Amino acid sequence: MDLNSIRDAFDRVTKKQKLSSSESQEVIEQIHQEIEQALSRLQSVHGDSHKADHKLIIAELKTKLKEMAPLSKLEDTQKELNIALSKYPKLLEKSFNPDISKAYRYVDFDFHTVNQIIASHFYREGLFDLGDCFLNEAQEAEAAEKKSPFVEMYHILEAMKSVNLEPALNWATTNHEKLGQNGLDIELKLHRLQFVEILQKRGREEALKYARTFLTPFATKHMAEIQKLMACLLWAGRLDSSPYSDLLSPTHWDELAEELTLQFCNLWGQSYKSPLSMTIAAGVQGLPTFLKLMNVMIWKKQEWQSIKQLPVPVDLDREFQFHSLFVCPVSRDQASEENPPMLLSCGHVLCKQSITKLSKNNSTRPFKCPYCPSEVEAAQCRQLHL
């Protein structure tokens, strides 16, 4: 799919539309000026000869309008725009296949799991009423118990948007041990933001009191950070012009909200991103490959619904790669414990079953590497661990 050609075509249509609008407006302005001038002349004519003068003025106006040929100009600009507009949809139809149903393949879903994933997505987005309604319609009442953690997370994030860290601090205090076991300093980051807010709004004394109560426990492991915050006390009332003005950046709030969401989901045993949104995003990225494969299989009269493994790789971005995997370039089989990847002496990698076939199940019989002129032996191959 060439997005550059689509973008260029869109720019041409936009340019034509602006040009057509500009030229049409110019023609209308010219007509308006001529009519205004004619009206002004008609109003200035007095006396017995005014009828003859009126006819002359109107005749001159007709002549000028005929010479201007406004209708012809408007038609020409509109015609050019219509040509550009008619070509653009054709390009879109050529570049984007509107019938994505060809890539559909029936899968025997576990509808209970799918319903939970959909409801969980609604709860993640704060659409609690919609999630409840969906579960009620799907008759999945037991899945509603997953709602309460998302309600708590949503309450915390909404409070942070209002510069209220109290719910987030309460959550961090409650989960202090678990967060500490993971070596996380999110609790310190929350206290740091709260300290800066108190220093800005309530002054040096209140900020110092807060630091003695809540920041002291972090001094042994984060002394440099605590010292930096203590130095901020010297700039009370003018922190924005101090060497520590970066602490006032709104990005700290956004980054901390994102980190809190990540750690909240981790502690609860959930993925950071919605499984539903990730599935849809991965499907959209792999859809062009599926459509091309389907067209080829129809031409070869193969059954799309019956294949158990895709004959071509589907390249996805790294965000969709959750664990290491290896697909044998010869057999196209994905590596497994029974069929692990093996490193040949020439440096290329094949799966064990492919090596067995190439060597005819003889560990000392040399065979040619499929990707270079080297001859190797199965006994010399070493197993790789993903």
TrEMBL record:
Residues 328-372 form the RING-Gid-type domain. InterPro entries: CRA_dom (IPR013144), CTLH/CRA (IPR024964), CTLH_C (IPR006595), Fyv10_fam (IPR045098), LisH (IPR006594), Rmd5_dRing (IPR037683), ZF_RING_GID (IPR044063), Znf-RING_euk (IPR027370). This is Uncharacterized protein. Gene3D superfamilies: Zinc/RING finger domain, C3HC4 (zinc finger) (3.30.40.10). One of its GO terms (molecular function) is zinc ion binding. A zinc finger (RING-Gid-type) spans 328-372. Residues 328-372 form the RING-type domain. Its main location: cytoplasm. Residues 149-206 form the CTLH domain. It is found in: Cytoplasm. Pfam families: CTLH, zf-RING_UBOX. The keyword Calcium does not apply. One of its GO terms (cellular component) is cytoplasm. Keywords: Cytoplasm, Metal-binding, Zinc, Zinc-finger. CDD domains: dRING_Rmd5p-like (cd16652). The keyword NADP does not apply.
